UniProtKB/TrEMBL annotation:
Gene Ontology MF annotations: gamma-glutamyl carboxylase activity; vitamin binding
InterPro entries assigned: HTTM-like, HTTM_dom, VKG_COase
Protein's membrane topology: Multi-pass membrane protein
Keywords of this entry: Disulfide bond, Lyase, Membrane, Transmembrane, Transmembrane helix
Protein name (record): HTTM-like domain-containing protein
Membrane-spanning ranges: 91-110, 116-133, 140-160, 180-201, 238-259, 265-298, 337-357
Length: 518
């Protein structure tokens, strides 16, 4: 019994050590103290990018976000009515100006926490008021990160607040930066790990993503900005399929690599490459920069030290980057002693709010000031009206098809190569890709010789849920060396044709005369 008791005690002590080690690791992961350089970079970069579309919408506040316009709230899209208050245009303009001012103050780090505590909720409010145009994936990500910044010490370094604090302490600019727990940066990192992992789970359940069909239609669309590189990439199905698998593998492994010494750089490097490619391939601009600026939260104190050492070796002078905050701090120090910094912030915010109301009044979007009443909607041209209501221009048969190619290799259901020359005995694969939506179609693939004589005809139904169809031809059965055409027909109409040459010796010694007799 004593031996058994000793074993039980040893097992219990091992379990206690394991549990203690686990909690120690978690505590170190969330509460290790570092200078918040990464958070400071996120603080400066993320709001700057998020403000680009918000500045452009300032001239349409009355239309998009006020009771005088037609805001479409996010709750309405889910059938929950209008949960948020829709303010008169003057109040909406004032709050919108305060939001812009608060986020700009956050960028420079002037009353940092106060700025984000005011700017972040207003940013979320205006996004949720316009779920059609303003609320997007990047604005959701930005909203989460702004909330995390509002409860962090991101203004402890590289900010007006930090300069004022150092100068007030008499330490100048050479004092070592304050060290704070890293848990706010960890929250941003976990946010992106969850985003990527969730995106991978969604893609795994979408077969069209792995076949390249979904990616192809993203690439050829111009819903965002022009993307000529994407249109060229859409013509390479094999590359799209390989890219799809690489993307899913990266998104699944991101949470397991992001906190490893070497895996961190691999995961973040692939992430930067992925988001940069979306700029040129999909025409996205704000979304890639929102994501890549949030990657700065993964930078550690040692990374910043390495970057500084490299900059010093390259003799790059970057002291001028800190001059705006130093000059702002020197200007604020000239205020009367009895005036608190928060009071200056609130006074400046009030001036911005009044200026925003005046700007809305001067813009006069609806012409109320200039005409005494809202502008009347202009009447549409009656010919255009009749065409829109009564005329349904028939869709050409060839417009139902995206592409038609021939090759010899298939990957994940898609033609992986294009060829125009085949050897006798090879299998020719002809594939057509269709544009959704389309009705049920009868599609034929016809092989013709150089003199347009029909050699073979194959057909199949392509139902409305299918986006591609394939036809396989064994050249040894009916074809002899020579020049041929593969012709795609739909509803009896020619849609496209591709030439090919068959080389080598005729199989079985059959000549063209015997072929045509078949």
């Amino acid at each position: 019994m004593s031996w058994f008791g000793d074993q039980v005690r040893e097992i219990g002590m091992s379990v206690k050590k394991g549990v203690k080690s686990l909690f120690t690791g978690l505590e170190q992961f969330f509460f290790a103290e570092e200078a918040p350089y990464g958070l400071a970079l996120v603080r400066m970069c993320l709001p700057t990018v998020a403000l680009i579309p918000m500045f452009r919408r300032f001239f349409r506040v009355r239309e998009l976000y006020s009771a005088d316009g037609c805001p479409q709230q996010l709750a309405e899209l889910f059938g929950n009515g209008r949960l948020l208050p829709e303010l008169p245009a003057e109040f909406a303009a004032a709050l919108y100006g305060v939001m812009l001012f608060a986020l700009i103050c956050g960028v420079f780090g002037f009353r940092t926490r106060l700025s984000f505590l005011i700017g972040a909720p207003l940013y979320i409010y205006f996004n949720m008021l316009d779920a059609i145009g303003t609320m997007t994936k990047y604005s959701v990500i930005a909203a989460h990160v702004l909330l995390i910044l509002s409860i962090s010490d991101c203004g402890a370094v590289w900010s007006v607040d930090a300069v004022l604090k150092r100068r007030a302490g008499g330490g100048g600019l050479s004092v070592l930066p304050v060290r704070v727990p890293v848990w706010p940066a960890r929250l941003i990192q976990i946010l992106f790990a969850a985003i990527y992992f969730g995106a991978a789970i969604t893609k795994v359940q979408t077969p069209e993503f792995f076949s390249g069909e979904q990616m192809r239609y993203w690439l050829v669309s111009n819903w965002n900005w022009p993307n000529p590189i994407g249109e060229l990439m859409a013509l390479s199905p094999a590359m799209l399929m390989v890219s799809g698998y690489i993307t899913v593998v990266w998104e699944v492994t991101f949470p397991f690599l992001a906190w490893r010494p070497l895996g961190r750089f691999a995961a973040l490097g692939m992430g930067v490459a992925f988001h940069v490619m979306t700029i040129f391939a999909l025409g996205l601009w704000i979304f890639p920069f929102i994501c890549t600026t949030c990657y700065l939260a993964f930078l550690q104190e040692s990374d910043i030290a390495a970057i500084r050492a490299m900059v010093a070796k390259l003799r790059i002078r970057w002291e001028w980057l800190g001059r705006p905050r130093v000059m702002a701090a020197m200007l604020l120090e000239r205020r009367p002693v009895m005036v608190p910094l928060a009071g200056i912030w609130l006074a400046a915010g009030l001036v911005v709010a009044v200026g925003s109301v005046e700007a809305d009044y001067r813009l006069d979007v609806y012409g109320i000031r200039s005409n005494g009443a809202p502008l009347a909607l202009p009447a549409m041209d009656m010919a255009t009206v009749r065409q829109m209501i009564n005329s349904q221009e028939p869709l050409r048969e060839k417009d139902k098809f995206f592409s038609f190619d021939i090759g010899s290799m298939v990957m994940a259901g898609q033609l992986a190569n294009r060829r125009s020359q085949f050897a006798a005995g090879e299998v020719i694969i002809a594939q057509c890709n269709l544009n959704p939506p389309h009705e049920d179609l009868w599609v034929e693939c016809v092989i013709q010789d150089a003199e347009d004589r029909v050699i073979d005809v194959a057909g199949q139904f392509v139902t409305r849920d299918q986006l591609y169809a394939k036809f396989n031809y064994l050249t040894a059965e009916k074809l002899v060396p020579g020049q041929y055409w593969v012709v795609l027909k739909s509803s009896g109409q020619e849609v496209s044709r591709r030439p090919f040459e068959l080389t080598g010796d005729a199989i079985g010694g059959r000549g063209a005369e015997g072929l045509l007799a078949n």
